[in-house]
Amino acid sequence: MNLIARTADTRDEGTGTTPLPPDHTQAILEVTKEVGAVLKASGCPFALVGSVAAYAYGIPVRLQHDTDFALRAEDSETVVRLLRGRGIQIVEPPEDWLVKARSGGEHIDLIFALAGRAVTKELLDRAWTLPVDSVHLPVIDPTDLMTGRLAALSEHHCDYGALLPVARGLRERVDWDRVAEETRDRPMAVAFLYLLRLLDVLPSDPDAGEGADRRD
Fold first, then answer.
1. Which residue, 20, 70, 79, 117, is the most exposed by fewest CB within 10 angstroms?
2. How far apart are CA 110 and CA 157, in angstroms?
3. What is the mean predicted confidence (pLDDT) over 62-72?
4. pLDDT tens digits for 93-110?
5. pLDDT given for residue 115 in this prediction
């Protein structure tokens, strides 16, 4: 393959940026299980969040970026020490609400705040235990997952296309009234919930949403 062909394979035409590989799903799942095993052994409460959490609920998403874990800030030092002991590289970012790590070329985010809200024991206690590629791990509650995803929307990051399949797949397991209440001051979230009603994903009456029955 000549240089021009190789360049076309690795860079987005006209943007000068290197695109992500189309699918890192299995590699990210392996890292998720590795980190999940360390966190379970630590005794610190945690939950999967982000795209891997959606995957655990059966949403057909491709995993490309990283694996995300929510944990309390007060547990971060213990978790970081244990991960280092397993040979996982820790990267200290400038932000004070997460720690980044790497393993096997894949990225890991250890998150202490979701959309500006501190991760609490109450939030982690609501997690569902689900199989993640055959390993059972706590996964953030569907309502908390949607609330966090919607609260993170802004004028600079507002990808409704990525959120639609998640909302469709989780709609019967989400307390949409609570989502609406907790995101009522977020214009992008309010607009997305309105879009879901127009698409008949949610009832037309915003007060007619049904809460989800908790599954063990």
1. 20
2. 21
3. 88
4. 767 788 999 998 899 999
5. 81
pLDDT score for 7: 32
Nearest alpha carbon to residue 211 among 160, 163, 150, 146:
146
Q: How far is CA 90 from the centre of its chain?
A: 19
Measuring CA to CA, how many Å separate 161 from each of 62, 81, 144, 166, 176?
14, 38, 19, 10, 19
Distance, in Å, from the CA atom of 69 to the CA atom of 53, rounded to the nearest integer, reads 9
Distance CA 80, CA 88 (A): 9
Whole-Å CA distances, 200 to 57, 142, 156, 185, 193: 21, 19, 27, 23, 11
Give the angle 132-138-139 at the CA atoms, nearest 5°.
75
Burial environment of residue 113 by CB neighbours within 10 A (0 to 12, 13 to 18, 19 or more):
middle
CB 125 within 8 A of CB 214: no
Q: What pLDDT shows up at residue 23?
A: 66
DSSP class of residue 211 equals P
Sequence ranges of the domains in the chain: 1-140, 141-209
Query: How far is the first Cα of the chain from the last one, in angstroms, to the nearest whole number?
Result: 53
Would you call 201 helix, strand, or coil by DSSP? coil
pLDDT tens digits, 160-196: 988 999 999 999 999 999 999 999 999 999 999 999 9
**8 A C-beta contact, residue 36 and residue 134:** no
**Is domain 1-140 given the CATH code 3.40.50.150 in the classification?**
no
Q: Look at residue 11 in the predicted model and tell me its pLDDT.
A: 40
CA dist 87 and 104 (Å) reads: 10
